[in-house]
Amino acid sequence: MAKCAECGFLASRNKQTRILQETEPEARNKGFINELHQAPICLMNIYDLWEEMNTPYGNDYMGGYEKIVSALQTERDCKQFTEWHKGFTPKEHREMINSEQQQKHLEERENQQRINDKRWHLWEIVAIGVATISAGVVGAFAQYLVSHH
Question: pTM surpassing 0.70?
Answer without folding.
Answer: no
